Amino acid sequence: MGLVIAAGGAPVLPNFGSGISACERNNGLFCWHWFTQHWSSTFAPALLQHIVLVLIAVSIGFVIAFSLALLAYRVRWLESPIAGVSSLLYTIPSLALFQILVGFTGLTRLTVEIGLVSYTLLLLFRNIITGLREVPQEVRDAARGMGLTQRQILTRIDLPLAVPAIFAGLRVATVTTISLATVAAIVGINEGLGVPIFDAIQRVNFKTEFIAAAVLAIGLAWVADLLLVLLQRLVAPWAARRRSSLVPRAVVRAVTRRPRPISTVRGA
């Protein structure tokens, strides 16, 4: 692939073939014609790869963080060690972490996923455990007095009340992962929207390719955040409608529909 040469003799942009417009020749701010021509061959595959990378990382990270949070919720002394390890992983610069992982797993998708999952753990673990810890104790006591078991209290009381905090962590982790996934291209892993971004930088800063990939990454983050907000409203509609109430109606029904113990039924 050759370069189009400006009048002064300096390379301006890659020669992508015949029919180059004046915008492309002058490396304009954004050449819509070039973008549409390369949507199916460059940007659509990169966008799809980026979505897959993020979905895998966030899903695996959520499963791990959720399991660790439940364990720490039951065994309190485990919270500090788990938070410490996840904080340590989060502080490692992404470029350095990807470069270290390449030595063990090579230039593969596994390398990217290990790094991305590592960065989701702290965000998700902290929010899940915080959501569980902030459930009012009087609500648990009322549920226990109505005869609910520990497992029923967890599934019917603790987790429903922790949904807003869990989704808050999930939103931050998702947007962060979308951003970090673009860094993978710098270490030679050719997947995701980072590939056209890094490619544009290498090719004498071709503005259209850089801006298009960057806008797609920003748009993907915005759409993902919006979808998570909508999903939260479906899962916990009470969080949006009844912000002033500590206990949603669904939780109240879960407690009150349990039969009271015999000792509380018999009166004097």
Feature tags:
71% helix; two-stranded antiparallel ribbon; 268 residues; 13 helices; MetI-like fold; elongated; 2 domains; mainly alpha; disordered N terminus
Overview of the molecule:
- With 268 residues, this protein is an all-alpha fold.
- Helix 3 (39-74) crosses helix 6 (109-133) and helix 9 packs antiparallel against helix 10.
- It contains 13 helices and two strands.
- The chain folds into two domains: 1-37, no CATH class; 46-258, MetI-like fold (Orthogonal Bundle).
- The chain has a two-stranded antiparallel sheet with strand order 1-2.
Shape: elongated
Low-confidence stretches: 1-12, 262-268
How many helices in DSSP terms? 13
Largest sheet: 2 strands, antiparallel
Order of helices and strands: EEHHHHHHHHHHHHH
Q: How is the largest sheet built, in terms of strand order?
A: 1-2
Share of residues in helices: over 70%
Strand content bin? under 5%
CATH superfamily descriptor of the largest domain: MetI-like
Count of the separate structural domains = 2
CATH structural architecture of the largest domain: Orthogonal Bundle
Which secondary-structure class do the elements indicate? mainly alpha
